[in-house]
Amino acid sequence: MTVSITGATGFIGRRLVQRLHADNHFVHVLTRTKSKAEEVFPVKDFPGIVIAEEPEWKDSIQGSNAVVNLAGLPVSTRWSPEIKKEIKKSRIRVTSKVVDLINSLPGARPTVLVSATAVGYYGTSETQVFVESSPSGNDYLAEVCREWEAAALKVNKDVRVALIRIGVVLGKDGGALARMIPLFMMFAGGPLGSGQQWFSWIHLDDIVNLIYEAILNPSYKGVINGTAPNPVRLSEMCNHLGNVMGRPSWLPVPDFAIKTILGEGASVVLEGQKVLPTRAKELGFQFRYPYVKDALKAILS
């Protein structure tokens, strides 16, 4: 297959490109900065990979069986009003562009668009359980996710759409863990904030496999939660992290420290939500890491 990917140089995108490339699929990296993509995917390691800047996106998409849309500024950063605008704009702009390009193709279109979104769609709660059919929340991230998904759903009706609402992705070289580990080192670990908030996580390999399945399997369509089947309270996650790192985990990381690092973006960590992958389980998806303890051991050992 030929797969075009936006956000290919990001945390999930890199691993997805490696996986597709290892399985001998053709990959088109849709990028805004060619030099960065060439650094991440050097020709010697990724022969045959096509790196396309924006003016060439249409040709790349035209020759593709599938498009995966992962582009967007990370949310786990300090949110200033400017950054909040940019977080929203970056997602909606690229998604709309990709959809417009697919819709403008004269002949054969890609058969599937797999578009990332986030569990932020549901808003936050310490008591509710969220599944794919749950209503959207009413905070800033929920609004971003609604508009992001709406942009993807404007694609031509003959294109299958899978919207993957991604939880907190755990992996070695980026994402939430890369930010939590220094906090652990500084404060000797411990729960972030109250520790009672829910943490809906997924191992990087599992989210990549879920996206891969969504590309290949026609029954993957509509909204699919990209979270592991066993969310945990943050205090439990931090206990396991402390154990794996050999750090004590009784001293809570104070709210102010998290807010200092993440600003308003800290709400993602401090408020949390319990999200279950009901649809993935119905589809028979096999999680390699259903339990956070095993995921952390695999990542940090």
TrEMBL record:
CDD domains: SDR_a8 (cd05242). It holds the Pfam family DUF1731. Residues 4-219 form the NAD-dependent epimerase/dehydratase domain. It comes from the Eukaryota. Residues 253-299 form the DUF1731 domain. InterPro entries: DUF1731, Epimerase_deHydtase, NAD(P)-bd_dom_sf, SDR39U1. This is Uncharacterized protein. It comes from Erythroxylum novogranatense. The lineage of its organism: Eukaryota, Viridiplantae, Streptophyta, Embryophyta, Tracheophyta.
